[in-house]
Amino acid sequence: MQHLLGLYRASERDIALILQEAAVLKPALLSSPPQSFSFLNGKTVVLAFFENSTRTRTSFELAVRRLGGGTLNFSAATSSLQKGETLLDTIANIEAMQVDAFVIRHGQSGAAEIVAKHTRKAVINAGDGMHEHPTQALLDMFTLHETFGRLSGLRILILGDILHSRVARSNIFGLRKMRASVSVCAPPTLLPVGIEHFGVKVFADISQALEQCDAAIVLRLQLEREAAGFIPTLREYNTFFALTDEALSKVSHKIFVLHPGPVNREIELSSVVTDRDDTSGKSESLILRQVTNGVAVRMAVLKVLFHDRA
Ligand code: NCD
């Protein structure tokens, strides 16, 4: 693998390799003090975030450090982009300082791919517009595999604002490649046109959708991408599409709950369901476990990329 731009084009072999590497690396991360490695000794990874982030940026930063590399944080808000410099000029100038890889988050779909075409360095897509967010889907798949011992045959529901979600797209491509069956549930206005061609089952009713899944990946209503304009009111959305104890009360089995964060509490997910992580309840939240696993998965991605480019 030369870059990680999305899971649409990733092979089943690449995905399986990253998940296996992450499983090997995770115990080292949890040991006290965390064990570090030297795979990235002398390497510098640029964290170029043109959009806000808490989890993804800090997770990549830790992943690079635990592998012995250094990070260079580039903040768009205080850069010369504000003076009109183009994205490609900005990247070319940072590349000229002899860095080794770029982790890019950008509001425009396709931004990571354009950068990859114009640099000799490795590029990892950390979220491009409404297109893909491959490391999020990989950490979701890792967490599901850790919980169920397999991905093949699992029934995964993606619930919420699918239209604006790069996480949904990457998960649909990745989970299907690993032979899970994927369904989606959302108001019709929050589903992309042609969703049926993605090979997913579409539900309009949350009770039916939940009854037929083993785990639900709940998505944030992307209010900064004008999602509120696609629904009558937030209250109505919450009544019909939020994952709450009321919705779970109609389901005959336990549901595992994932969410990429940040959670809009009491909009797409109730606080009770967000925080209930005991194993005996009607639902079990894996949300913070996803965050822990994110570091191991990003270490695995970096390790595989640098190995393949050596
Ligand atoms: C997601 C993102 O930014 O795409 N969050 C994340 O990376 N953890 C999803 C979101 O913002 O809703």
- Count of alpha and pi helical runs: 11
Order of helical and strand elements: HEHEHEHEHEHEEHEHHEHEH
- Describe the global form: globular
Largest sheet: 6 strands, parallel
Classify the secondary structure makeup into a structural class. Answer: alpha/beta
Bound molecules: N-carbamoyl-L-aspartate
Report the end-to-end length measured between terminal Cα atoms: 11 Å
Task: Note the beta-strand portion.
Answer: 15-25%
Question: Care to count the β-strands?
Answer: 10
What proportion of the residues is helical, as a percent range? 25-40%
Query: Which segments are poorly predicted (pLDDT under 50) over 5 or more consecutive residues?
Result: none
- Overall pLDDT level: 95
Rg (CA only): 19 Å
Biggest β-sheet: strands ordered side by side in the sheet: 7-6-5-8-9-10
